[in-house]
Design brief:
Blueprint (H helix, E strand, L loop, with lengths): L1 H13 L1 H4 L4 H5 L5 E3 L5 E3 L3 H26 L4 H37 L2 H18 L2
Antiparallel strand pairs: 1-2
Helix pairs in contact: 4-5, 5-6
Amino acid sequence: MAMLVAAFAVLRLLCPHVIHGVSVHAWLAPMRDCAIYPSEVWYQRMHAVTRQNVSARLKRIEGQVGGLLRMVEDDRYCVDILTQINAVRSALHRVEEQILRDHVSHCVANAFASGDPTEQRHKVEELVETIERMTR
């Protein structure tokens, strides 16, 4: 954030006509819900409600996987183990759908709302690649 504030100050000096009278907080407001990858690519964070729901689901799935391990260690019937594996796979699929729905509802939607054709094209390509990976 300090780097962004510094960049804003430099931008204000170099291009006063572009951001005349705009406060640093107003300029950074659209980035409030954003984070940055180590490669310095901006992305929007998952909605808080989605993050809480996904965390709760993953903790349940973690418990299911622990149960699977105990079933294997206890030498349980193969069909019962396979049934539980399918349940874990199904639960992971629901988590995947929830995260994808969240991504489309704000990351992709914001790209289209921005009106930037390059950003729109990038988000559509990213979405198609993501869905392709999910369906393999």
